[in-house]
Amino acid sequence: MALHYINGEFTKGSGTSTIDVLDPASEKVLDTVPRGTGEDAEAACKAAKTAFNSWKRTPANVRANLMHEAAAKMRAHKEKIVHLLTLEEGKPVPENEEEFEWVTNTFDYYAELGRHERGRVLPSGEYSQLNLVIKEPFGVALCIIPWNYPLLLMAWKVAPALAAGNTVIIKPSELTPLSTLYLAEHCFDHFPAGVINVLNGVGKDVAEPLVLHPDVPVIAFTGSLATGQRIASLAAPMMKKLHLELGGKDAFVIAEDADPDLAARALSYAALTNAGQVCTSTERVYLPRSKALQFTEALVAHVNSLRLGPGIEASTDMGPMIGSTYREKVEGHVAEAVSKGAKVLTGGRRPQQLERGYYYEPTVITNVNHSMLIMREETFGPAIPIMEYDSFDQAIELANDCIYGLGACLLTGDPMKAKIFLEEVKAGTIWINDPLTDNYAGPFGGMKLSGGARELGQEGLDEFRETKHVHWEFSTTPKSWWYPYGK
Ligand code: NAD
Fold first, then answer.
1. Ligand 1 centroid, distance to 420 Cα (angstroms)
2. Predicted confidence (pLDDT) per residue in 200-225, tens digit
3. What distance in Å separates the CA atoms of residue 30 and residue 150, rounded to the nearest whole number?
4. If one looks up domain 4-246+451-471 in CATH, what number appears?
5. Which end of the chain, N or C, is less surrounded by CB atoms within 10 Å?
6. For ligand 1, atom 9, which residue shows the shortest CA distance?
7. Catalytic: which of 88, 95, 99, 245?
C-alpha cells in the first residue's frame, strides 16, 4: 500500500478506509492508498506551515539547487515513472514520455526563474527615498490535481510555488496518486521536511478542510468547472488567492486552403491525444461547407487507421478512458446528438475486441449543431463532432459561441485569416498550424469559465507571489506636510 507523505515521512494517517487505484486498461487494482481524513489534512497543514518559516528564508540559489536535484533524480528514475503513469492513467507510453519531459523541465525552468528576481525598484519621489516592489510567497499552497496529467499539472503548480518560497500540500486525484507518491519517495526526499507534502483522499474529505483552513492562503486547482465553482464559493469569504484552471470545449477551424490529409492528422492529434481527455482537446470542429466532404473523408480514413489498446503496448495509438463514469458521459453526449439527427461516421461504441478496460472507439460525428450537448458541454473523450460553416466570419462566431475559452486551433496558410483568428477568438491559447504545443515560457490558461489562472512563464511564478510596495525615506526629519496645518 502507498501512503501519505507528510512532514518528510510516509504515514497511513488517521483513517481506516482505503482507495483502490485501478489500471483503466484492465480494470485491475494496481495499488491501494489510504483515504485521508480531516485530521490528516490538519497534520499536512501544520507540517507545511512550520516548514514555511525557514523555506521562505532559504536563499533562492539554495531552493533552485534543490529543485534541479529533484529534476535530476526524476531523470534517473524515468523508466519507472513513465511506466507508473502509463499504468494508472492509461495513455500510450510516448504521451507519458512527453509528460515526463514536461515535469523535469518545469522544475529546471522555475529553479532558474525563481533566482532571477524578486521584484523591482521604482523611481522614487525624492532623492532620499527608495521604492521597492517586493514579491513574497503566500505561505502554504494547496495544489489540487486532476487525473489526466497527474505529474505535469502537479509540476506546473508545485515548481513555481516552491521557487517563489511557498511550501506545498499536493492533493493528487484519487484516481492517479501513485506516480506522485513515487516522486515523493525517490525524487523529493532531499527537500526539508514539510516543504512538500502529499495527501491522498477525496476532495470533500481532505481538500475542502484545507480550502477553508485559515493557514492555507493560496489554492491552485486544475479540474472540472463544477469543482472549481465549489472551491471558489468556499474560499471567497476568506479572500484567498485562487488559481483555477477549469474545463474547455476547444474549437478547431479548418480553413478552405488547408490540405485534407494534413487536416485529418492535425485534427486527430488534437482531438484524440489521451483519448480526448486533455483540457485543450479539440471538442468542436468547423469545416468549410465547400470542402467538407473531402475533409471529412480524409479524417474518417485516418481515424480508422488508429490502433486502440493498452497504453503499455508499443503498437497503441489511443488507450482507454480513465473510468466508467467518464465513458458514460461520452456515450450520453453521442446518444443525445444522434437522437437530434446527428450521424456517426465511425466509432460511437465500445470496441468489441477489448473485453476489459474503459475503451471507447474514436468517433467522428456530423450533422451536429450548438443545441446539442456534444457541441456545448465538455465531453472529455474521443469524440470529434463536425459542423460546417459558410464564411470565415461565421466560423469565428461559432468558435466563440461557448461558455469556455481555454484554447482554439486554426489550420491555414493564409496569414490574414490567421491574424483575424488570433485577434477575434476569445481563448487563452491560440494554436495556428501546430495544435496543442505548449512553451515553458508561454503562459497557459483560460478565459471565460475556463478560469483566469496562468501556468508556465513569468505569469506562472507570479500566481504564487504577493506584491508588497515598500516606500523608504532615509531622512528622519518631519515632513512639511505633516500636522499641524496652521502655522
Ligand atoms: P475534478 O474536478 O473531478 O477533480 C479534480 C481534483 O479536485 C481531484 O483531485 C479531486 O479529488 C479534487 N476535488 C473533487 N472535489 C473537490 C472538492 N469539493 N474540493 C476540493 N477538491 C475537490 O476533475 P477531474 O475529473 O479530475 O479532471 C478533469 C477536469 O479537469 C476536466 O474538466 C478538464 O477540462 C479539467 N482540466 C483542466 C485543465 C486546465 O489547465 N484548464 C487541465 C487538465 C484538466
1. 33
2. 999 999 999 999 999 999 999 999 99
3. 16
4. 3.40.605.10
5. C
6. 173
7. 245
